Amino acid sequence: MDLPKFFRTYLISQDCSPLTVKNYLSDVKNFFDWLAAKTGIHYQIAGKAIFGIFTKETILEYQQDLLSAKTPRSTINRHLSALRKLGEFARSQGWLSENPTAKIGNVNHQYQPGNAPISVPEQADILNEFRAYLKKEKTNPLTIKNYLSDLRHFLGWLEGN
After folding, report:
1. Does some domain include residue 13?
2. How far is CA 31 from CA 42, 61, 78, 98, 104, in A?
3. At what angle are helices 73-92 and 56-68 packed, to 10 degrees?
């Protein structure tokens, strides 16, 4: 069974862009490679039976390994999106009764005492996400400017503590 080929066909039928198809296939391959390293089970041999170990616990362990490897948050979230789509695919084929990834949310950076300082690129991501949120909420531009200034000061304070 050529699982990636079937998944590719599914993605195309779901009107995913060519770039999304390419990225999701790469992300799913990364997951299957990780799974093979952890369990010794290869999707090429197991075929659709691989979904017997496609569980919430397995996905959370994968997520934790990515976090431990300091994989960028945006990359982890893209991997999770690909796995959600893979779960939808497996469910549509009758290989899963429910998608175990459906209730696994994206990774958000949360500061906890003892965490490593927030890097400059992470600070920029936080500021950009907050700016986009404020714009979406139709916040006054002067208020956005002031909030971002306050947030920059706070992030600077975090680095000092």
Report:
1. yes
2. 11, 11, 12, 19, 15
3. 160
Structural domain range at position 134: 120-160
What is the distance between the alpha carbons of residues 82 and 28, in angstroms, rounded to a whole number? 6
Domain final residue pick, 92, 112, 135 = 92
Task: Count how many residues are written for the chain.
Answer: 161
Which position has the token pair 């950076």? 109
Specify the number of domains making up the chain: 2
Q: Return d(Cα 96, Cα 80) in angstroms, integer.
A: 17
Q: Do residues 27 and 79 make contact, with C-beta atoms less than 8 angstroms apart?
A: yes
C-alpha–C-alpha distance, residues 13 and 33, integer Å: 25
Q: 9 and 56, same structural domain? A: yes
Q: How large is the C-alpha radius of gyration of the chain?
A: 19
**pTM for the whole structure:** 0.64
Q: What is the mean pLDDT of each run of 10 residues along the chain (161 residues)?
A: 87 93 93 89 75 88 89 90 93 91 78 55 84 92 91 75 51
Q: Is residue 58 part of a domain?
A: yes
Does residue 102 belong to any structural domain of this protein? no
